[in-house]
Each structure stands twice: as C-alpha cells, then as structure tokens.
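Lay summary. Proteins are chains of building blocks that fold into shapes, and those shapes determine what they do. In this project we predict the shape from the chain. Here is one chain we studied, written as its sequence of building blocks.
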Amino acid sequence: MRHKIAIFSDVHGNYTALKAVYEDMQEQGVTESWFLGDLFAPGSGAQDLWDLMQKINPDVYIRGNWDDLMIRGAAGKIALEKPSKVYMERLAMDVAAKVDPQVLATMKRWPMRVVKQINNVRIAITHDLPEINFGQQLYPTLPTENFNKLFVEDDLDLAIYAHVHHPIMRYSSEEQIVLNPGSVGQPFNRHVKFQQDLRAQYLIVTIDDDGVSGIDFRKVAYSHPDELLRAANANIPYIELYQRQMETGEVHTHDYPLLARLNDKYGYLREAKEYEAQHAIHEKSDF
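And here is the predicted shape, written in a compact code that computers can read:
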C-alpha cells in the first residue's frame, strides 16, 4: 500500500501559513498527516487555529516545548525571573483566554514520542530528543553522534523530529535516515539569503511496498500582511515583535533588554504577576 504522509510542525500561531500548507497538502493528495508540535504563539491563531487543526485531523500529534509552555503558562506556572519567561507567560495567558479549556487539556495528553510502522519502514517521531522536547542538541550542524540518540530501538529505520525550524535530511552513524520538516510558521536559517525565504515549510514522505520512495521538502507561499492583519485584529501581545518576524524572520525570544522594555511599557510583567497570583488563590481554595 502506498502512503503519502504530510509531516508538519512549529506552526507557532501562524494561522495563515498553516491554512496555506493545508491547501497544499490537499493539492498534493496526501493520505495522512503527522503533527510534531508547537502549535500556538506568538502568532495570530487561537481557537480558529485549533479548528483548522481539526479539519487537517492529523493521525499523529506530538507535544513540543512550546505546547508545554502554553499549558504551564495557562495554569500560571511559569516562573517570572527572566523577561523571556514573562514573554512566555503573557503569550500563554492570551491563548488561554481565547481557546476552549478542553484545547489545553487535550494538548496535555499528547505524547512526546510515537513509533509507527508503515509497511516495512519503522519510524520514530519526536519533537526533539526522545525524552526531552527542548534544547539545541539536534541543531542541524552538530555531529552525527547527537542524532544517533533518536534511534532508541535497534529496529528503527527512520527518525523524524522538529524543533530547530530547519528542513533537514541526514543520516545516523548506521545510515538510518533523519528528517526534519522545517517550520510552518517560523522558519530559521543563519545564512542570510536563506533566512529571507519566509515561505511555510513542511515535508511529504512517500512509502510504498518497497520502502521510502519519495522525500519532498515543500515550501508554500502565503500572505504575510494577511497574517499581520489577523494578529492585529486578535490584539495579540508583543505585536511589534511578530511584525518583525513576519518581515525579516527574526525572533526575539531571548532578547532580554528588548523584552524587558516591552514588559515595562505595556504592563506585561504586572499582568503576568496578577494572573499567577489569582491562579495561586484558586489552587489554595480547591483544598
């Protein structure tokens, strides 16, 4: 049987990019789809993005590090000792206010790793490492030994991960295939010319009775001004940073001086502290 599998990840709230990817999936005639994590924030999408995911109806869901951050932040559980943590908390507060509570409850149940058998090909699917969905141990330029960690079981043929926002094909030391679909909503590349290409990225893997018969790294154009307009209409926090991302690909998640200025200017730190204090009161009252 022939399987044409769309693999996508790191949407980061970009509804317009995911909609374009979904339309391309349909045009390409994929038979199933796998989502490898990081659905919300900092982009425009909230309940509308979740509803779009229900239309796509992935056969596999994986929980990414930003999914965990949204879950923790919605519960008021992110420590606010750094400007970047305030950023995460404030984004999570925004998502939590706009989605049905069952959305985050469902995300909490997503696994960190799934192993699939497609015909004669055995595949490990993760957001990052098998037991850790954050960090930079699988950055694309790092040694092969790092990527060997994806192959926990000896009988695996293929490992697919996400997180680093780069389309990747490389090999383990045993020449098993390692793939990464890149990012739907937030592509990265240190090479300036490549970073200027801000199309949505995803991957189609075709597997027939003989094995892997096709690996197609897709790039899909979408309207960045339309996504910015959606973000403005949704009144997302840190919209200046999202505008920079839409225009240049730059992100400022760890730019502490800039985040500190914005947190002070818009009262995000105060709002995050008040939100977490209110959640702490509710927790105490439950006992």
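What the prediction tells us: The two ends are 55 Å apart (CA to CA).
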